[in-house]
Amino acid sequence: MPLLDVRNLSVSIPTPDGDVHAVRSVSLQIERGEIHGVIGESGCGKTMTGMATLGLVPKGARIAADRFHFDGEDLGANAARLRGRRIGLISQDPAAALNPVLSIARQLDDVIRTHRDMPRQARRAEAASLLAATGLPDPERVLKSYPHQLSGGMQQRVVIAQALATGADFLIADEPTTALDVSVGAQVLALLRRLVTERGLTVLMITHDMDVIAEACDRATVLYAGRSVETGPVGAVLRSPGHPYTRALLSALPDAAPHGARLAAIDGSIPPPRSAITGCAFAPRCPQAMAVCSAAVPPERGRDTHRWLCHLPEDAA
Amino acid sequence: MKKLVQRLGWPGTIALAVVVLFAAAAILAPWIAPYPAQGAGAPNVAAKLQPPSAAYWLGTDHLGRDILSRILYATRVSLTNGVLIVAFSLLIGLPVGLAAGYFGGWIDEALMRGTDVFLAFPALLLAVLMAAALGPGFLNSIIAVAVTWWPWYARLARAEVLVLRGQPYVEAARLAGVSHPRIIVRHILPATGRPLTVQAALDVGPALLTAAALSFLGLGVLPPTADWGQMVDAGRKFFPARWWYSAMPGMTIFLVALAFSVLGDALRDRKGGAARASA
Amino acid sequence: MELLRYILRRTVLSAFVVVGVTFLVFVVAQVVPSDPAALYAGPRPTAEQIEKARQELNLDAPLPARFATFATAMASGDFGISYKSRRLIAQDLRAYLPATLELAVFSTGLALLIGIPLGVVAAARQGRWPDRIGSFGSIAAVAMPTFFLAMILQLVFAQWLGVLPLSGRLSREISISAPLPMVTGFNMIDALLAGRLDAFGDAFAHLILPALTLASYPAGVAMRLTRSAMIEILERRHVVAARALGLSEPRILFGHALPNAMGPALTVIGLSFAYALTGAVLVEIIFAWPGLGRYVSEAILAKDFPVIAAVTMVVTICYVVMNLLIDIAQALVDPRVALS
């Protein structure tokens, strides 16, 4: 049984100007021990999917799904209980994720004492060991510091330590490398992979960066306009993508272009979040679009665990 | 009516109604007061210090006068107080602020340091000092409070003018050779006047409160003229046994000040809301 | 460096304001009245008393000379003699100042203790009824006339419920039969120092109603400031992160969000203290509190003008100094202030 089982998840937020469809239809399954990447451009609903899993959607937002289970339990009803206990969050932008007026020791201590019953000395030792586990060389100094005294990479490790402190076995990493330099980001990804193997964790990695998917993930799901359009093992998705959007994304990467040639870009823009969509959301921008694409929701194509939604027959790559 | 509620919300509309009611009471006092002569000051010693009853709705004071009538007559004094204080303060503050903001330089520095000195005082103390120096009386207490109030308007006016001074049409007028006074009167004054007048209208409430505090201390109008603050003070001797004497006028002051406060909030929210909608 | 320049600039400005204040008091006291001598000659002065005052004030001398005399007298603490108490005004001031200070300090503390938690709760329950009640409460607190609130509190707690004393600083039993040794002038502190718990409780009971009256307006302000600061902070990412990490709501509100909102608290302290100093004039009358406020109000009734001038002078200078200190404190806490 997958640890996280999501089928046809939708999240809409009512506003005075109409409902915002942050997530229209997302399906994915994550197995224990897997690092699963969710990739898409800004506004595709990837962060909101993560927030829905934690039960931290804006007030008044409506969540609906055919199935939305974590370890067999329904997330709609139990998110608050599972949050912080089984499901942890590594926030975007570690500088913003840490409280500027509290010391690191205090921020870690608060998490530890919420989830464990330990005397003060033991908690301090636990905090230090968690920091060491994330690769920080001088945990004592870091504990005494305030967030603004640490570098971006160190802040991110502290945030990871906080997530570990909850004792959660499922972590949602929301753009963990976006705010960091490339080399530091690579270290963080390596750290996450190591922690997954060492502690038997499962990770949902949200990102807009293909390199992150390539480097760190076992499986990936591609989101477009609030819909999951392709999912599969990373190797298959990157080497033989099925969905035209995935193909366009990959060819738009700077590395994909031959030296000196113009960069390929995808014409058009994503549909506005308030509008309803009939048929395939990508149809207006798809180079291989057919009449049926704008009329009917595309069927599922693909083999084994590599699937995508498209009207085009499978070998039309 | 519906449009009014839309603009102000229910609390704001009720507050506006209260303010209008009090203005009406001030104008119509001699006609709606149950005992107009007593309201104006005539004693009625036989009925002194009676609790609220059918004959005297809010009770009577130490000279037997109907408190309701006294309060209604006092409305004229208090509202006039508030309006005149604000008007005087505008009269002094607006030109000072205009001059400081428009001409800038050392004029601005000098004028602003001057307002700083006035603002350094705790307002009530300066008003007390001024009122003590001038002596009791209706006009004197107004001047006393206005002396502490005008610096706020000067600052407000100056801030508005600073914004306007940078506007293209003002620049254009200067370049075309239009004289300073002309520019001020035709361009700056109208634009500054509007927000300041709104602020001033809302300030009548707090001004009224300060004037009441002065009367309470004995520095306002002289008896037998009815005045809310003075009535509260006079009733103190009989408090808390004959609580109605101080409580009734005190409650009135509170209600009027509250109405202005709520109205001010409602207007500010509406302006803020409009700004948000257009953003 | 910027900080030092800022402190220097503000101190010089304050010194200038002090001179200005002295001049303004001089003008109001000696230039504005139609006959300053009559004013300074005490209540119901005789012709010869007025003549004496005229000579003392040196009314024929040119204005700058008179101002110089006035300013030097003020600077050396020579405020003249009070007609009512027949003592040096400076002595009176020293006697009455602690009582008013005690009120001001206590009410400021109360204002923060009431206002800040209410602001936190209002922000956490934004839009719902605790928030609406709180908003209305703070508007009412601002509109309520100080003297009226004092009288209502007196009526309810002292008269109807009989729980608290009606007036004064200490009950007769204690102040007459077993008086407190005066160390600081702050009754509560002196009681603790002397180990007298009965006096401590008594002093506290007398202090509560007047302090509550003076605390209401600043509490309202504190509530609004805390509320708006908290609303902004509760949207920040580190609060969302704290929630995601499973921390309990109270811990997030008070342990994580509130510390970020403490900046406005500094402003409220200044405002509250200032409000208490002026409001004391009204409150001390009603509660028969022997402080500067009552001193001034009795001087008004007794037409004891030199007292009014002296108190205005002294309190205003305290004001200026206090504002200066608060500005400096704010610059220390938030370096951006020094750059403005």
Automatic annotation (TrEMBL), chain C:
Residues 97-326 form the ABC transmembrane type-1 domain. It comes from the Bacteria. Its main location: membrane. Pfam families: BPD_transp_1, BPD_transp_1_N. Gene3D superfamilies: MetI-like. The chain crosses the membrane at residues 12-32, 103-124, 136-161, 203-226, 265-287, 307-326. It is found in: Cell membrane. The keyword Ribosomal protein does not apply. GO terms for cellular component: plasma membrane. Coiled coil: none annotated. Keywords: Cell membrane, Membrane, Transmembrane, Transmembrane helix, Transport. It is a multi-pass membrane protein. GO terms for biological process: transmembrane transport. Belongs to the binding-protein-dependent transport system permease family. This is ABC transporter permease subunit. It comes from Shinella zoogloeoides.
